[in-house]
Amino acid sequence: MSRRSQQKEAAEEAYQLQTRAGIEGAARTTAIGLGLAVIGHHLWPAFRRQTVAIKGFLVSGFTIFGLVFGAERALVEFENKKRREENALRQEARIALARRGLIGTETEIAQWRTEQASERTNKTES
């Protein structure tokens, strides 16, 4: 699999994660906002006098907050996971190249990755 197709796959996975987490976050905070609006309506006379539009605006603010921060949290977690995987792979490549007496430059690491991918392909075909 080429590097570009791997990046495209990772971007699609990140998009799916963000979408799912955003929807979940929005649903969660909408419920919180609705609950607080109902409680505020029954317990606070100043809030009770507000129009439905203002109450809806407050609830939609909760919804947007949950959507944005839920999606952002999921993306940050995904990026951290990918970064850790990449760092572990690069460390493995540097160690393997050092055993061969080579310095782990970007070019050498890219060649090592290609070799590893072809070895994995050969093992699965056998």
UniProtKB/TrEMBL annotation:
TM helices/strands, residue ranges: 25-44, 56-76
Record's keyword terms, sorted: Membrane, Transmembrane, Transmembrane helix
UniProt superkingdom: Eukaryota
Protein's recorded name: HIG1 domain-containing protein
